Amino acid sequence: MTSPFASPNRPGVPPRLPTPPTGWPIGSYATYEEAQRAVDFLALEDFPVQDITVVGVDLMLVERVTGKLTWSRVLMTGAASGAWFGLFVGLLLTLFSPEPGVTVGPVLTGLITGVFFGLVFAAVGYASARGKRDFQSASQLVAGRYDVLCHPKSAEKGRDLLAKLAMRPANPGS
């Protein structure tokens, strides 16, 4: 029996436990897209990209508000998610039904029950918040910059290649 704590990290295999990144910085970029472009360029130049690590520095949690929550939106969303779950359960029931073929009864029962419970759970959840969070949002983890690190044996070559990339204009089509 092996333990994840006993085996050392193997080259080319991500570590099992969180570990700080290692390597020499060969580039720093304001966006992930720019860092990805740099690694893509290195791959096209037959650089050993397995020696590369992209590190997001100065992490931020960004929450973008996508809309206002209203009773109608909450209930419609609850009914829709309940309907999908009920439809899924109804179809599962037909699979294990002793009668051959798809019967409408279990599917319809699952659908109606799912809509009902979706409405109830959505209403209870929204009412219990008492107006403390009347908006929808999407969260994203974003870095202030993205550093490209490289194994020391290849760092000088990587830095030289990225300097050539920096001299070229950024073209989204390339």
Automatic annotation (TrEMBL):
Q: Where is the composition biased (Pro residues)?
A: 11-22
Residue ranges of every copy of the General stress protein 17M-like domain listed in the record: 26-99
Designated name of the protein: General stress protein 17M-like domain-containing protein
Where are the membrane-spanning stretches? 74-96, 108-129
Q: Which organism is it from?
A: Lentzea xinjiangensis
InterPro entries in the cross-refs: GSP17M-like_dom
**Which UniProt keywords are given for this protein, alphabetically ordered?**
Membrane, Transmembrane, Transmembrane helix
- Domain of life the protein comes from: Bacteria
Q: Indicate the segments annotated as coiled coil, or none if absent.
A: none
For region Disordered, the annotated ranges are: 1-22
